[in-house]
Amino acid sequence: MDGQMNLKQQMIESLEHSIEQAEAKAEELKKPSQKSAAHMRAAECDFWRKKIKEYEEQLKELEDE
């Protein structure tokens, strides 16, 4: 049981780290850029927002177990 708790805690920490990294990337993409790259940056920002939502859902599931 202790091994499972340790693994679960590692997974939670990993997801929290992934959320932090994705949020930082999304924030970076919000900064002004050249117009030619703006559409691509917006699409990438949307991707990271979706990833953050997925990570948060996984994190909530793990914490609720």
Topology:
Layout: H1 2-30, H2 35-64
Helix pairs in contact: 1-2
Walkthrough of the structure:
This protein is 91% helix and 0% strand. The chain contains two helices and no strands. Helix 1 (2-30) packs antiparallel against helix 2 (35-64).
Number of strands: 0
**SS-based structural class?**
mainly alpha
Radius of gyration: 15 Å
Shape: elongated
Low-confidence segments, given as residue ranges, are: none
The average pLDDT is 84
DSSP helix count?
A: 2
Largest sheet: none
Proportion of residues in β-strands: under 5%
Helix percent reads over 70%
- Separation, N- and C-terminal Cα atoms: 13 Å
Order of helix and strand elements from N to C terminus:
HH
What is the structure about, briefly put?
The chain has 65 residues and is mostly helical. It has helices spanning 2-30, 35-64. The radius of gyration is 15 Å and the shape is elongated.
